[in-house]
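Throughout our pipeline, every protein is held as a single compact record rather than as scattered files. The record that follows is passed on verbatim for readers who wish to inspect the format.
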Amino acid sequence: MRARRSFFHRLLRWTAGLVLGWIALTLLMVATLRFVPPLSSAVMLGRQLDARLDGQKDFRLRYHWTPISKVSANLPIALVAAEDQKFPSHHGFDVDAIQDALADADDGARLRGASTISQQVAKNLFLWNGRSFVRKGLEAYFTVLIELLWPKQRIIEVYLNIAEFGDGTYGAAAASERFFRVAPAQLNSHQAALLAAVLPSPRKLHVDRPSPYVQRRADWIERQVRQLGGSAYLGL
């Protein structure tokens, strides 16, 4: 009996040590990435693995970090207008959007996403694709850390650098050069809106061959940007 109790005590200590060590490691990771550009992301690594497993020998991943100071102000506000209009004021979670999504699901509609930009950064940077409760729990955890440790400007800077704008094309620099043959600082308002318009499904929707849906969505995003007051809305 005493031996069994001793074993469980050791197991509890080991478990607590592992949990505390993991928390310390994740805190260090998130704190470091406030200042250091990420070399890659979990989503990029996953896409590279998928390409290798599928035998896509011609697959090419395009990504290189660009500071927000070298990105046109048209892009951050287009992303916010398209994805998360409460971004400047929320603390990582849009409670109203979550409640609306749950209400729609109760009415029989498919449960839709209500992720903020902060949540998308957490998912894309650290986690895998999927809808499991474990992944959503980890996403919430990393979102809290990001909101606590990063200013809003850093969150949107990382987002516009790691978001996928086309198959294998990540970030403002790679996307602007691939699709428009311009530097990210030269993106005009319509080009920025087109990039934001494909974010729901960047491997099915195309910036360089926009469907009528993408064109309509880009036009809507431009109207939303004007209603928000343009780039001044972000206060960056």
Observations:
- The chain is about 60% helix and 0% strand.
